[in-house]
Every structure is written in structure tokens, then in C-alpha cells.
Design a protein that fits this description.
Length: 310
């Protein structure tokens, strides 16, 4: 008997979960490129980001989403709305929770996580529970974590993995693929990695450095807008160069002073960090100029949110 040719499976998967569980790190790991910024702070991701993974017979189109959390303020409410709206547009949902137990090996499933599970349940989509950061948890602690989450929902599957080491990410991908519809043709051409323009990613790389280096409320008061992205000298071989000029908006004069730092030291650090990342991403030299502007209460004004693509 001749074998039937394997059908292509292609579809959309929403990566959702509480802030900081490792959603963006997983997307970057799967794509092998850093398109989503990552920081130890919650609410680093502000918009939804499409990243497409291609494998033989499989195309997985992931939406990385802002974390599900109790939202206060216009920006935060918008972020949660975006994450929830994504649930209704996908073929399968990947909900992430962190591996690891508390004192005495106990696993507490918090109110906020229960709420996130409820939202996933309400979507009616096949849901895979991903237990992230398994590199940080001793093997034997995975069982109590699985036990604590198992009965919260009729999970299609439960898969522990580490986006940091890559352990079990392959299993996670094939598990997800099994829940996608069969398709005659891929959803995207194979050379499309993301819906984010390089210009947007550049703005995000600058914001990532702000998230990493600033404290308290200041990183949350920063929005970055790329004003110039000049590629005219990009194809000059080894001397190729992209010139980028970006504006960091903050909400108050006091924040502007902090972002600039003593004699410009902080802004310089932010710029150096972002430039190094961008040179890796773009594969050429980058000239990056940063400026800071006070834009009072931008995070509360619909007009500014739209302007920053939020
Ligand atoms: P998100 O808010 O869910 O998108 O989470 P991020 O991807 O921004 O990650 C939040 C923090 O967790 C960052 O400091 C990451 O470096 C860290 N992190 C993410 N995945 C892993 C992992 O698999 N193992 C470990 N040890 N840390 C991780
Ligand atoms: Mg994120």
C-alpha cells in the first residue's frame, strides 16, 4: 500500500499567561531571532506580536501577547484587551504557567492565574498548558505543579519546557501542531518571520534597554517612537550602516531627568545596549541617536496610544 502524502497543518496559536511567565522568550526561542523584547519586569510586552515557525508539514503562527493581569490605567486595560481578543482569533491556545514550588513544596494557584484559565476556558479553544522555566525547577517538583493545574481545565495536553535551554520545546511544538487544522496551503510565505517591521523592532529594542536599566515606575512611563530609519547606506558591504533616530517619550520632567541621567550617562547606556542588539539583528553597523521628550500622561490618552501603535 502506498503511503498517503502527509497533509500540511497550519494555524494560529495564542501564547497567553500572567506577566513574566516567559511568553516572549519562548517566541524568540522558537523563531531563533529576537523579535519580542524580554525583561525581568512584568508588562514588558505591550502589543501583540506575530511570529511564524515553519517546519516540514507544519506552519505555526504564534501571537505573543501582553500578560493577563488586573489592569489599571488606559494602557494596561488596552494590553489586557489585546490579549483577550487574540483568544477568539486562534486555532489553539498555549497558556503558560511557571514551574516551581513555594516553601514546603506547596503549589499555590493564585487568583490571577485562575482568572486567566477562566478566560482560556471561555474561548472554547483547545488549550495546551505549558509549564515554563523547567530549568529552574528540580525534576521532582514538576509533578506537584502538574497536579495543581491538571483539574483547573480540560487541557488538551500539559507540556513542561524551558525556553532558556530549549529543553522540550520541540515536543511543545509538535504537540501544538497536532491541534492545528489541516490546510491545503501555508498561511504565510515561508520567508515571513513576523509582522513587526524592523523599524518597530528598533523602537522595542530601545524600550527593552529602558525596561532593563530604569527602576520603579519610570520604565512604564517610557514609549519609544522611531523618527528616522535610514537604510540608504545599508548595502555598502562591510561598511553597511543603518541610521536610526528615536524619541523616548516620558510623562514627567522628573522622569526625563532620570532617563537622561547624570551627564547623559543613562541615555548613553540605553543607546549602547540597543545599538548592540540592533547590529546583531540587522547584520550591519547601526548609528543610533536618542532624544527624550515629556509628553504628559501619554499612557492615559487614546491619541498617544494610537500614535505609539498601542
Ligand atoms: P513574558 O512577560 O511572559 O513575555 O516573559 P518574558 O519572556 O519577558 O520573560 C520574563 C523573565 O523570565 C525574563 O527575565 C526571562 O529571561 C525569564 N525567563 C523566560 N523564560 C525562561 C526560562 O525558560 N528559564 C528561565 N530560567 N528564565 C526564563
Ligand atoms: Mg512578553
Amino acid at each position: 500500500m502506498g503511503e498517503r502524502p502527509k497533509k500540511l497543518r497550519a494555524g494560529f496559536v495564542a501564547i497567553v499567561g500572567r506577566p513574566n511567565v516567559g511568553k516572549s522568550t519562548l517566541l524568540n526561542r522558537v523563531l531563533g531571532e529576537k523579535i519580542a523584547i524580554v525583561s525581568p519586569r512584568p508588562q514588558t510586552t505591550r502589543t501583540r506580536i506575530l511570529g511564524i515557525h515553519n517546519a516540514p508539514d507544519v506552519q505555526l503562527a504564534f501571537f505573543d501577547t501582553p500578560g493577563l493581569h488586573r489592569a489599571e490605567g488606559a494602557l494596561n486595560r488596552r494590553m489586557v484587551e489585546v490579549a483577550l481578543a487574540t483568544l477568539s482569533e486562534v486555532d489553539a491556545v498555549l497558556l503558560l504557567v511557571e514551574a516551581g514550588t513555594g516553601p514546603g513544596g506547596r503549589v499555590e494557584v493564585g487568583e490571577a492565574t485562575r482568572w486567566a484559565v477562566e478566560q482560556v476556558a471561555r474561548s472554547g479553544k483547545p488549550a495546551i498548558l505549558g509549564i515554563s522555566k523547567m530549568d529552574r525547577a528540580p525534576r521532582e517538583s514538576l509533578l506537584p505543579v502538574i497536579a495543581a493545574y491538571k483539574d483547573l481545565h480540560a487541557w488538551a495536553e500539559i507540556v513542561p519546557f524551558s525556553a532558556l535551554t530549549g529543553e522540550n520545546v520541540g515536543t511543545l511544538l509538535s504537540t501544538l501542531a497536532g491541534h492545528l487544522p489541516e490546510s491545503e496551503a501555508p498561511l504565510f510565505p515561508p520567508d515571513v518571520l513576523t509582522d513587526q517591521a524592523e523599524r518597530q523592532i528598533a523602537a522595542e529594542y530601545v524600550r527593552e534597554q529602558a525596561m532593563l536599566r530604569l527602576r520603579d515606575e519610570v520604565p512604564y512611563a517610557v514609549a519609544v517612537e522611531v523618527e528616522e530609519f535610514d537604510e540608504s547606506e545599508r548595502e555598502r558591504g562591510p561598511r553597511g550602516l543603518v541610521r536610526i533616530s528615536a524619541l523616548l517619550h516620558v510623562e514627567r520632567a522628573s522622569q526625563k531627568a532620570i532617563v537622561i541621567g547624570k551627564r547623559g550617562a543613562m541615555l548613553k547606556e540605553i543607546g549602547t545596549g540597543a545599538r548592540e542588539g540592533l547590529e546583531r539583528l540587522l547584520g550591519c553597523k547601526v548609528y543610533l541617536a536618542l532624544h527624550v521628550r515629556v509628553d504628559e500622561r501619554w499612557s492615559e490618552r487614546a491619541q498617544s496610544l494610537r500614535r505609539f501603535g498601542l
